[in-house]
């Protein structure tokens, strides 16, 4: 059994859905497939705007924005389907109604709750269309609502999977199907039947969870790039393909902000020794990248650029040392506010913390630590991380930058500079 994951970029047009179907046809002739699919293109971003408008009390705007998304999906379905169109429309219509009902309500709960009820619909739309298209071209498959399978807690927008319950449900659901299983990434459901999401770009993680539970031969993630490269090819056209990588290396790259694989994807695979293949959606003959437990030596420098960074300067009010107590208070606040620092540098009575520039979070952090620290914030920064750097290369990359902070270990250098 193999698990495939197609991301938003691989299903963002009629041609790409047709191309995905051709890949599925080819591979399903040889093996049993479980397929996880994300929302089409930038649908999740568009649904976020619907959730924001709804929560701000702008009902008409929310309905209008949702109408645009709805029509885009209907148009795609119309182009792709003839025999299957009516059945597909009926299923899509149930989802339209699910959201439109909610949009007519007044928000009385947390934003995160409504966000998940609205945003989860993107994956339900895309998988419905792809599933009916596969039927249309005689590729038998079974569409499953992953909300009946992936059980989570109610930590909306970043829900945690309840493993025992999910394990039973994944095994049962796949066992009950004798053809291709097709379902959604990124979303789940609480015991109270409330939809949840697993964190942005979380479909890779869903695919890894299925692969782990099913003991898959491997997980293949189809991308619009050759494979994992030593930098984002959109920003660095000279980027080279990395044909083999270790789980260790990829988890580090993802942690430092490489957008190509979701950081949570690696653990479920590493735990069961399941290889991860990152393959080129546009040219299946290319080798792609194989990620496994095996150590890979002599890697070239790997670069990760993280934009929209802020540097928070904290200094104790009373000149007391930044010892155990203030540090543990700070990390507690990080936990409470769901903040992951991208870099921390400490001195005797001061600390500098680099974070994604999210004004709300920074304000909350400043308030929470104000009894111990004076707080200053620098914005408009970029964080460049180079793994396996040579001093010369690090120097060349940052020679013309207005540098604010540098941190180095033997393997990794991080440079924070003004944009
Ligand atoms: N090191 C890297 N190697 C390859 N692609 C990268 C890397 N870093 C960032 N990317 C970007 O990741 C994108 C693919 O990931 P993503 O947009 O999440 O795809 P999808 O939504 O289809 O899963 C590529 O288009 C590429 O620009
Ligand atoms: N659609 C979700 C989940 C996801 O993983 O998407 P993608 O595979 O396109 O990165 C998001 O955009 O966050």
From TrEMBL:
One of its GO terms (biological process) is lysine biosynthetic process via diaminopimelate. InterPro entries: AceGlu_kinase-like_sf, Asp/Glu/Uridylate_kinase, Asp_kin_monofn, Asp_kinase, AsparK_Bifunc_asparK/hSer_DH. Residues 2-279 form the Aspartate/glutamate/uridylate kinase domain. It comes from the Bacteria. One of its GO terms (molecular function) is ATP binding. Keywords: Amino-acid biosynthesis, ATP-binding, Kinase, Nucleotide-binding, Transferase. It is an enzyme of class 2 (transferase). The keyword Glycoprotein does not apply. GO terms for cellular component: cytosol. Its EC number is 2.7.2.4. Pathway: Amino-acid biosynthesis; L-threonine biosynthesis; L-threonine from L-aspartate: step 1/5; Amino-acid biosynthesis; L-lysine biosynthesis via DAP pathway; (S)-tetrahydrodipicolinate from L-aspartate: step 1/4; Amino-acid biosynthesis; L-methionine biosynthesis via de novo pathway; L-homoserine from L-aspartate: step 1/3. It catalyses: L-aspartate + ATP = 4-phospho-L-aspartate + ADP. Belongs to the aspartokinase family. This is Aspartokinase. It comes from Filimonas lacunae. The lineage of its organism: Bacteria, Pseudomonadati, Bacteroidota, Chitinophagia, Chitinophagales.
């Amino acid at each position: 059994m193999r698990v495939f994951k197609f991301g938003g970029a691989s299903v963002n047009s009629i041609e790409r859905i047709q191309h995905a179907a051709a890949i599925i046809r080819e591979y399903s002739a040889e093996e049993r497939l479980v397929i996880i699919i994300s929302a089409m293109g930038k649908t999740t971003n568009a649904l976020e705007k619907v959730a924001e408008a709804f929560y701000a009390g702008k009902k008409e705007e929310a309905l209008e924005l949702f109408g645009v998304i709805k029509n885009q999906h209907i148009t795609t379905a119309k182009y792709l389907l003839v025999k299957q169109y009516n059945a597909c429309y009926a299923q899509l219509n149930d989802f339209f109604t699910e959201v439109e009902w909610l949009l007519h309500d007044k928000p009385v709960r947390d934003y995160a709750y409504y966000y998940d009820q609205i945003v989860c619909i993107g994956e339900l739309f895309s998988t419905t269309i792809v599933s009916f298209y596969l039927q249309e071209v005689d590729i038998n498959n079974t569409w499953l609502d992953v909300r009946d399978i992936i059980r989570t807690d109610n930590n909306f927008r970043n829900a945690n999977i309840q493993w025992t319950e999910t394990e039973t449900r994944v095994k049962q659901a796949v066992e009950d199907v004798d053809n291709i299983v097709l379902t959604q990434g990124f979303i789940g459901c609480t015991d109270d039947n409330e939809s949840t999401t697993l964190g942005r770009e979380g479909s890779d993680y869903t695919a890894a969870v299925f692969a782990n539970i099913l003991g898959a031969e491997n997980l293949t993630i189809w991308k619009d790039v050759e494979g994992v490269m030593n930098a984002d090819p959109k920003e660095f056209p000279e980027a080279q393909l990395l044909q083999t990588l270790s789980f260790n290396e990829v988890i580090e790259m993802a942690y430092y902000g490489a957008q190509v694989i979701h950081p949570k994807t690696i653990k479920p695979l590493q735990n069961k020794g399941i290889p991860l293949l990152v393959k080129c959606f546009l040219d299946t003959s290319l080798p792609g990248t194989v990620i496994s437990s095996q150590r890979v030596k002599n890697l070239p420098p790997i670069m990760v650029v993280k934009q929209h960074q802020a540097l928070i300067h904290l200094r104790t009010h009373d000149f007391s040392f930044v010892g155990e107590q203030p540090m543990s208070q700070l990390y507690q606040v990080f936990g409470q506010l769901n903040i992951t620092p991208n870099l921390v540098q400490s001195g005797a009575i001061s600390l500098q913390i680099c974070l994604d520039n999210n004004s709300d979070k920074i304000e909350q952090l400043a308030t929470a630590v104000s009894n111990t620290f004076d707080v200053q914030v620098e914005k408009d920064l970029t964080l460049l991380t180079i793994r396996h750097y040579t001093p010369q290369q690090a120097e060349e990359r940052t020679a013309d930058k207005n540098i604010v902070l540098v941190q180095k270990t033997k393997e990794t250098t991080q440079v924070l500079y003004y944009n």
